[in-house]
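Hello forum,

I keep getting stuck at the same step: I have a sequence, I want structure tokens, and every attempt I make locally crashes halfway through. Rather than fight my setup again tonight, could one of you with a working pipeline run this one for me? It's a single chain of 121 residues.
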Amino acid sequence: MSDMDSLFLRIIAREIPAEVVRENDRVIAIRDINPQAPTHVLVVPKKRYRNAAELAAADPELLAELITVARDIAEQEGIAESGYRLLFNTNADAGQTIFHVHLHLLGGEPLGGLTGGPLRG
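Reply #2:
Ran it on my machine without issues. Output:
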């Protein structure tokens, strides 16, 4: 898949509409179009890395920034106190279907265990 095929790069370029929750020069956060919880936001680096492991090796500061942005959004959404989940799907067997790393922020209700099947994305 080329960089131009990345769904997230097309969203960043404003070729595809998305509900942007937060954005800075390195990160964009958008609402998931198929939410798995009342709050389901994807925190995406603007530079494309295939998965969380690749991002961690190449730019650990950017990885930390994704988590910081997710924390700030959880506070903004009013779910920080009650709790939220941060999730990376890394490669196909984990349910990753878009190979541009993104962090899922989920919350707004009790989430229970992860036995209900993988989150796709």
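The beta strands are 20-23, 27-31, 39-45, 84-87, 103-107. If your local run keeps crashing, start a new thread with the error log.
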